[in-house]
Specification:
The protein is of the alpha/beta class. About 40% of the residues lie in helices and about 20% in strands. It has one domain: Leucine Aminopeptidase, subunit E, domain 1 (3-Layer(aba) Sandwich), CATH 3.40.220.10. Helix 4 links the parallel strand 5 and strand 6. Helix 1 crosses helix 2, helix 3 packs across helix 4 and helix 4 crosses helix 5. It holds the Pfam family Macro. This is Appr-1-pase-like family.
Length: about 170
């Protein structure tokens, strides 16, 4: 498994799976979710609504899968992260871990992850980076895990914390 740390737009990443930081109802109205639907097409939102109709809202830490529409990926894993100060940090780990598990279940080789819960849900980048580092240290049967960060500050924080936590990664 190779970990890549990159700065940019997750909708432009070439990976089998892109992870979307989602809400429980899979309504993709802002942040990473909005960008994914805007570029990938309305079918992503339609599939998400169909999932919720059939299975109900997701709990924090759970994931759902849809197609990736017009994006370069095959699938989107929608991960429901916690709200900072309301739900525990273990739920953030769970969202990251369940995303990677689902990618393995789909038998794909590459996945791109954003900084889940750091947008409107308010998690500090430092906390997200440490939780992601902890999960990345587990044994994953994936060839490539890309951590894609949009902002320079987020990238710098993840780079520093991954180094502190002993995560071997390639910048790019």
């Amino acid at each position: 498994m190779i970990v890549y740390l990159t700065k940019g737009d997750i909708t432009e990443i070439e990976a089998d799976v892109i992870v979307n930081a989602a809400n429980s109802f899979l309504e993709h109205g802002g942040g990473v979710a909005y960008a994914i639907v805007r570029k990938g097409g309305k079918e992503i939102q339609e599939e998400s609504r169909e999932y919720v109709r059939k299975h109900g809202p997701l709990k924090t830490g759970e994931v759902a899968v849809t197609s990736a529409g017009k994006l370069k990926a095959k699938y989107i894993i929608h991960a429901v992260g916690p709200r900072y100060g309301i739900e525990g940090e273990e739920k953030l780990e769970e969202a990251i871990r369940n995303s990677l598990r689902k990618a393995e279940e789909l038998k794909v080789k590459s996945i791109a992850l954003p900084a889940i819960s750091t947008g409107i849900y308010g998690y500090p980048y430092e906390v997200c980076a440490r939780k992601m580092a902890k999960v990345l240290k587990e044994n994953w049967n994936l060839d490539k895990i890309i951590v894609c960060l949009y902002a320079n500050y987020a990238y710098d924080v993840f780079k520093r914390i991954f180094k502190e936590e002993g995560i071997n990664f390639i910048e790019g």
